Fold each of these.
Amino acid sequence: MTSVRIEQIELRHISMPLVAPFETSFGSESEREGLIVTLRGDGLTGWGEVVASHAPGYSPETAQTEWHILHDFIIPEVLGKEFADVEGLEAAYRSVRGHPMAKAGIQAALYDLLAKAQGVSLQKMLGGSGETVKVGVSVGIQPGTEALVERVRAYLAEGYRRIKIKIKPGRDVADAEAVRKAFPDILLQVDANSAYTLADAGAIEAMDDLNLLLIEQPLAEDDIFDHAKLQSRLKTAICLDESIHSARHARWAQELGACRIINIKPGRVGGLREAARIHDFCAEHGIPVWCGGMLETGIGRAANVALASLPNFKLPGDISASDRYWKEDIVEPAFALNQDGTLTVPTGPGIGVTVREALLEQATIRKEIYRPTGARVVTFPGLRKSP
Ligand code: NPQ
Ligand code: MG
């Protein structure tokens, strides 16, 4: 059993401009912040991404809160320690409540490190298979309905085979109808990011005849019970995203009939290991899953591609090509869309992509290096680049 001692940890708070603002029901961002976690040991380097952003819009976490949790509570339990598997890491931070994005980021780095130590790809370590994974694209709320139809046309021309559009009250039925009218046969789904309540779910029911693949997270981010009431009124499958933080939540949703599909994101559920547990539970209960996206850099993207190659990931994920979000990705090779609407799964050791460290430094607005000797090298915090 290969184990690795963590000799050094690096934490970077990064900020990168998006190729275009991304608007959802909870706000709009044109600059993406996040954290990159680096674990070094036995001459190897493992990379992980904390998908929290500047604002607590998607979940209660931000880049700052997850920095604090890693710096004050998780890194002290990891630095200088030896790990043979990620379950050992899960045990090491068990006393930390919540903060799945911080846990997922350092866990992904350990997966990368252990896979490299064993000379296997992350795909193989997770039990995935296949050379490619089907992907789609998530389209933000556009200035108007016509602009949305044109944006969708452009993505279809790029080769995406599944379209997801963001909706919110007032930008829902007309938008979804216009896209369906323009493209009668495409795989189409919508994502509300919890913008509706049962009281105003009439708009959701008005989309029930658009042959949508699914309606994602219409109700509150902490709800499973009311989603079951809404699902019983819909022909279209509800897909839960924000509501599902664990395999236990997946079981509640299945037992209550709250959804028929689940969007799995390592950052939301506390890591790739729990993501695989949810995948396995859903496989046993006939619930197809797909890999959601959190506007990751190529570091998080590579981990998502490996995860999405597990057998019950039946629907195209939101793991779009690097150039959907970034002018330049901080990994090479960047992820490029294949003509058949798939991404190729890296086969090299670990995440199978190389981090462009010079570019990473340019995106870094704050960095801390941790060593067991207690020496801590702190660079002066940079400023958030003006938008
Ligand atoms: C979702 N992701 O499936 C999330 C929404 C999301 C690809 O739709 C910064 C700005 C971070 C916008 C994280 C996609 C974000 C963001 C997630 C949107 O619900
Ligand atoms: Mg979602």
Amino acid sequence: MPHSVLVTRKLPSSVIKKLQAEADVDVHSGDEGMPAAQLRARVADKNALVSLLTDAIDRSVIDAAPNLKVVANVAVGYNNIDVEYAKSRGVLVTHTPDVLTEAVADFTWALILAITRRLAEGERLLRRGDWKGWALDFLLGSELRGKQLGLVGVGRIGRAVAARAPAFGMNVVYTEQREIDLPNAEPISLDRLLNTSDVVSLHVPLMPETRHLIDKRALTRMKRSAYLINTARGPVVDEEALAWALQQHLLAGAALDVYENEPAVHPDLLRLENVLLLPHMASGTTETRTAMADLAANNVLAVLSGRPPLTPVP
Ligand code: GLV
């Protein structure tokens, strides 16, 4: 085979077969990520790398692979890759936008409904054997109808979340400088969004400008009755500040799918009832994960055959 590909974690067999038809494929089969030294050693003679968001593709990895043409990340986010350095070394970087948009938007609404209606609290209570029977004032949540959803970031996923809002009777505001075509939604400053929204949902990529965008100051601006939802990237929220704000009841609750130091979760969050904690699974449907892996493989095959990649990072 003229080409060689390193795949850092198991992918659906249909996707591996597709790669194998065109290249020698070295797949890391362990359930844990590849240790950095092993990644550098195994990528050294490869032309393409299929990476996951848990792999740090830094300068040392790119320098270790002089024949590398493309890094195809199986994720829409690409903060795990030193994109500037890759580009400077002539290595293309691709990601998997669009194919996961609807799955993540659905999951965001699952979190919004679960935290505002206290689903996890109720389930924990029932399993503990503490349910004493129906009562009028038992585990009351708050309704979404007529409330304001504040979207911090309205790229593909933010818009798909906005599109579902009318079904729940929510008004939408969003932070965006440029005019975008989002029916029934209003652009607004971040401060005002935090001040006035009943649900604040984060949909920005992780970049230096968005790291700790939701810090202590931002959290103190939120309504005491409001909820924070994060399906973007953990470091967009200062987890320590969030745990403090929840303990002080500065907001009503939070639902998180992502964390600052995954898979670790701030221990104070684990002790709180008014926070819903999920293990980074927003795009996790069989259909979507297969489509993500397939798109990454198609990007690899395009580059190896001299065509432009389908979905390069911007
Ligand atoms: C998941 O977090 C992704 O970026 O695709």
